[in-house]
Request: fold
Amino acid sequence: MDETAIPYSQGAKFTIYRHVPPEPTPLDSRYCKRRDVEELRMTFIERCLIHPPLPGTTLWAESSSITITDDIIPGSGPGARLLGVNGVNGNVVAKIYDPLYYQTPTPSDSYHVDPTPFLNADHQYAHEAAAYAKVSSRLGGTIIPEYHGSYTCELPVVSVSGATTRSVRLILIERIPGTCMRDLQPRRMRIPQHQRANVMAKIVDAESLLFSCKVGHGDLNPRNIIVCGGDLGDTDLRVVLIDLGSSRVYVDDSFIDPSGLPLSPLLRWDARGYSHQNFEALGWIDWDWQTWLEQRWSGSNAYAPITKKSREDWLGRYDNPPPPIPLSAMYTSGGSLGSMSSAARAMLMPPPP
Reply:
């Protein structure tokens, strides 16, 4: 990375323009065809100029000025950068989707073309902005940060062709006064079980509410949760879900309860699934998860009643697992590993999310 090309230092000022993002994008390989050649022959800034962000719509008449106050997570890994800024709505967070901060992945194999920094930046910006736009009026400032809109800025650069500018997308969100759940480390800090259970209940409720608004988080891990308050056992404890760059906005109503109430955690957080496993691995859960779910949420009026259909939709894969695939059905007459029958392939396909 060419650090001299990155102007995000404390005190730097930028003019930003309102931007309507493109529709959420798939992770495809449209930028990957000549990546190896580009990396050998071009600087990263030159690659940024030939791979600008997806267009969307820039509202040039709606401009604002922001000033960088601090780097919220200095030295963070590849991905969007989080900067404290003053200007729009006071002191907020600017999440900047600059490809310079996205590491170029190493190709894995001939069947999977890894995405490039430009593709990742486009993808995360479009998905995160779409998720906030979908739910901010209902949930902003509660279980997700307040959302202050999507923007673009023009950064001056110098290339072999002379002085020019490159576009960089960003969003502005609330700055949350709290502690990242990843940094709490329950084993080392010996956090009592009742406090850990309270935090987990808040997370389950928050994620369930987000999903009831037809947004799936996509990357629910302790690193993407902020806990606000010193007393983890407080019934009014606020937990905030952040980083919606892997989220998905659903248009299908088939898995949303007609009542408008969230689906019961007994359906979507079942112990046979994996929703709780990241938290268990890090020491947040040391009790029987399924028993706890049933004791806490069975019959809850805050959630839609569990019907025969909803149970089949969400737990059918566990309640009625498919029979084992007979060895004779696994292969066609050739008998080689590459000759698996289409029927067997279909039976091995994972269920839809």
User: Anything to note?
Assistant: The first helix runs from residue 35 to 41. The CA atoms of residues 24 and 130 lie 7 Å apart.
